[in-house]
Give the backbone structure.
Amino acid sequence: MSSSPIDILCERKIIELDQYNAGLTFWYLHMKIFGKPFPQSNAGKLLSPIRGRLLITNPNKKDEEIYSIYNECRKNIIRQCGQSGYKILSEVLIFHNNPPYIYYSEVRAKDSAHKNKLRNALDSIKDFFRNFRKKKR
């Protein structure tokens, strides 16, 4: 396991393995469409300039399908968990911001609302992909 917040949450058993896998699937979709939310280090290439992201002028059918799946999943999360649940999910998954309870070894009651919103958002992703696979068959 690496040291991303979702890996730590799974390792500490705060989220279940199927929630972890659903979160990674959503993160991979986001990465495929938007790239990383932070630039890569350019320390190894100090003499060459940092290039920006390339704009796709003619997206192919696969790119459009990936975007539509991502957009449907995002709308499903917002419908089931609200904007606050989606915000918590994006902070942890996409921007890799560690929730405050990662730094504590004991369970604190004030963190349970945040954990529940994150779990519900991950469950909505899991349910979305389960239903999506059934529709595809």
The first helix runs from residue 5 to 11.
